[in-house]
Amino acid sequence: MARRMGPAQLPFAISVEELAERRGSSEEVVVVDVREPWEREICYLPESLPIPLASLPDRLEDLPRHGTLVVLCHHGTRSAHAVQWLRSKGVANAVNLEGGIAAWAQRIDPAMRTY
Predict the structure, then answer these.
(1) How deeply is 57 buried, as exposed, middle or buried, from its count of CB atoms within 10 A (0-12, 13-18, 19+)?
(2) Is residue 2 part of a domain?
(3) What's the total number of domains in the chain?
(4) Which of 29, 86, 102, 115 could form a disulfide with 91 if both were Cys (CB 3.0 to 4.6 A apart)?
(5) Active-site residue numbers?
(6) What range defines the domain where residue 58 resides?
(7) Distances from the Cα of 74 to the Cαs of 8, 23, 58, 71, in angstroms?
């Protein structure tokens, strides 16, 4: 079961299973997809906010500072860098999605297209 945590208590990363549980609850979760547009054309999480990694500094003020901000990429490397950067800029509610969209497709939504 997902635990509700304040920003100071958020882990650096969460699993795809935890994200699925949080999205199905009343908890406020915003997913930020830092992949490139061509990657999102292949697959994406509905209702995710597309902000390519290179655009993140210009869009910093667009990010919510309440709830949980889950950052995803293909396998979790770019999103981990994004979370480190976001937290250094005071976005304490940012967490990385372990394994990225690839793990989501494998373990949560096997019908999702992969690349």
Answers:
(1) exposed
(2) no
(3) 1
(4) 86
(5) 73
(6) 10-107
(7) 26, 19, 21, 11
